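quick q for whoever's on today - can somebody do inverse folding on this one?? i tried earlier but teh output was garbage lol. tokens:
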């Protein structure tokens, strides 16, 4: 490396540094010696030249000048050619460029541009979720300021283990944590900052390190059979009192099992005699400001959560009845929108907040733990599983899941209270007289189940 000329130009600076060393030593500061500083400067400049050569070649042109390329976003190809008469001058120009125009080479410096990229590649809503994970797990951590080339598999795995312990992470939360570094390093590979993604080589972490997520009881996940009946009645009464169609929308969803974004995106034209076609959903919109994604409003997306969520849901008698009532209410109010659920005052499409707020008010009247629209969806799926001869495949398709395991593991619960199922256990275990061992009060309450 012909970098001696560059170091010679540092001589005045080094002389000043000598004076500063003496002053600092007098006051007891722990400092580098002059030789140590010079060595570190040499290593750093050699590292800069070496890394530059990984991306761009250095060559001597036919006019004897030394040339290379440097990044330049103003050029069509994102780079420009520089030329110097002497090789040492070219190295000096390279070093100066990299020290004054730092190329993002750490997680922290890559993060802002990666986040903007993700907002374009996926959506601003997804970028918002990723920024939440970054702020929770990465911001302020030492590992984010280390040069990417210095990170190895062991470094990252040890950091993962530390973060699992620090935040008492469940396996699901760990996946959220790991997803961020995986995606940033994928981006770094595409930018040729590093040659491979070291984070994806981290071996599986033992389950014993994770906090076991508390699975809520069925009574907090779904509406029990008696609650389902009662909350539908409450919503019917509240509609008659307020004329807010959000309450009829809640009733309707007990017979459709839609995600709330799908529910408020329904159009009259989606309905046929036997089915409703699900093909769109409401999504939150965001705007980017100074690297932050700020909630702005809602819009209808011409797609659903996944390709498997595009589906036809059968219309039961009850479902058709609620749809008819909602459409007739809209007609009487002079509303002409093709959307089904409309604001009673403006006739504009209803947002998911209207459904969620109405459901919270209904839950308070029911005196039950607060359950959102997703609990209605789980109740719908669990009821299909418990009280029908439908196959798992039919239930999976109506739920809009790709795999039946998703439906079974996360959406199927017992909708009957345990005390109402004791006789069924007795039947299963073979007792001939299933009420023989129970108090008379229990026999009377459950006489129809025996």
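ok took a stab at it. sequence:
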């Amino acid at each position: 490396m012909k970098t001696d000329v560059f170091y010679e130009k540092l001589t005045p600076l080094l002389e000043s540094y000598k004076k500063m060393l003496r002053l600092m030593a007098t006051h007891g500061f722990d400092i580098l010696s002059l030789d140590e500083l010079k060595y570190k400067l040499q290593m750093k400049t050699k590292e800069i030249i070496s890394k530059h050569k990984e991306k761009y070649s250095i060559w001597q042109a036919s006019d004897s000048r030394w040339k290379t390329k440097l990044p330049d976003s103003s050029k069509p190809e994102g780079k420009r050619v520089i030329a110097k008469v002497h090789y040492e001058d070219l190295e000096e120009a390279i070093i100066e460029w990299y020290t004054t125009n730092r190329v993002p080479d750490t997680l922290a410096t890559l993060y802002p541009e990666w986040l903007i990229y993700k907002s374009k590649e996926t959506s601003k809503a997804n970028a918002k979720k990723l920024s939440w994970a970054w702020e929770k797990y990465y911001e302020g951590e030492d590992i984010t300021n280390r040069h990417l080339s210095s990170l190895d598999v062991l470094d990252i795995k040890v950091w993962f283990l530390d973060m699992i312990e620090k935040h008492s992470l469940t396996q699901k939360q760990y996946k959220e944590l790991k997803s961020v570094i995986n995606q940033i390093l994928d981006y770094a590979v595409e930018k040729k900052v590093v040659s491979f993604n070291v984070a994806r080589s981290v071996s599986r972490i033992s389950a014993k390190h994770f906090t076991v997520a508390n699975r809520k009881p069925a009574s907090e996940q779904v509406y029990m059979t008696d609650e389902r009946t009662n909350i539908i009645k409450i919503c019917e009464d509240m509609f008659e009192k307020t004329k807010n169609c959000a309450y009829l929308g809640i009733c309707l969803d007990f017979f459709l099992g839609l995600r709330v974004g799908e529910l408020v995106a329904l159009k009259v034209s989606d309905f046929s005699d036997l089915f409703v076609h699900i093909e769109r959903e409401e999504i939150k919109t965001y705007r980017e400001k100074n690297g932050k994604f700020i909630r702005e409003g809602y819009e209808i997306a011409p797609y659903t959560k996944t390709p498997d969520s595009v589906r036809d849901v059968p219309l039961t008698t009850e479902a058709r009845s609620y749809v008819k009532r909602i459409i007739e209410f809209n007609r009487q109010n002079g509303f002409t929108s093709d959307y089904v659920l409309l604001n009673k005052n403006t006739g504009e499409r209803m947002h998911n907040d209207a459904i969620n707020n109405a459901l919270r008010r209904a839950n308070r009247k029911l005196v039950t733990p607060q359950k959102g629209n997703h609990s209605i969806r789980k109740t719908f799926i669990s009821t299909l599983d418990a009280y029908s001869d439908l196959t798992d495949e039919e239930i999976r398709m109506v739920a809009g899941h790709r795999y039946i395991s998703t439906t079974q593991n996360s959406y199927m619960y017992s909708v009957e209270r345990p005390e109402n199922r004791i006789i069924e256990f007795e039947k299963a275990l073979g007792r001939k007289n299933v009420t023989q061992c129970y108090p008379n009060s229990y026999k009377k309450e459950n006489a129809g189940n025996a």
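fwiw Residues 418-450 form one domain. also The chain has 19 helices and seven strands. so keep that in mind when u check it
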